[in-house]
Specification:
Elements lengths: L1 H4 L7 H12 L8 H18 L11 H24 L2 H9 L2 H15 L4 H8 L3 H11 L4 H30 L3 H24 L4
Helix pairs in contact: 2-3, 2-4, 3-4, 3-9, 3-10, 4-8, 4-9, 6-8, 7-8, 7-9, 7-10, 9-10
Length: 204
Amino acid sequence: MFESVGALLGSPWIYAVVGLSVLLDVFLPVLPSGVLVITAATAAAAGSGAATGQVPHDVPDIMVLILSATTASVLGDLVAYRLAWRGGERLDRAISRSRRLTTAQERLGEALARGGGALVVLARFAPAGRSVVSLIAGAAHRRPSEFLPWSALAGLSWAGYSAALGYFGAHWLGTTWLATGVSLLALFGAGAGAAYVMRRRPTA
């Protein structure tokens, strides 16, 4: 598995690549940031002995990987939040033209105002949910103290879950493409579940 992935997994640059992908996917949700986190975590499992006899000497550190992904997630959210905050009337008009975005803005504002930022955490797992939440929080001029702590929790939850899938998947199934594939299915399943819950969640 690791020969086909290449030397990147054994280089400190893997943290920069993962971090950059996670930071940018708030604007480009198609970036495979989750795939990178899972693959790097699978490599970290190999370094702990999950693939006896085929262990590379240099593998990612699982805790540094989680920290890198979490930090990049929060920074990306903050950039989108600030851009939306300064978006002014143009962004407000764009949101008002979409019934879905208007409803999401109202729901998010109410959730943040009453401390129910679990919606921010849930949206982190849903496809493009992170982008919508960060932009709407900024456009609605929610206070940083209302948004950023939940953004940090969301980033940590997502990074920890993704890394755990790759790490423990490799321990249970071996460091093979099968383990990575099962881990990705679990990540996409969580995303689909989060999107379903957000659609079904009643408005106040």
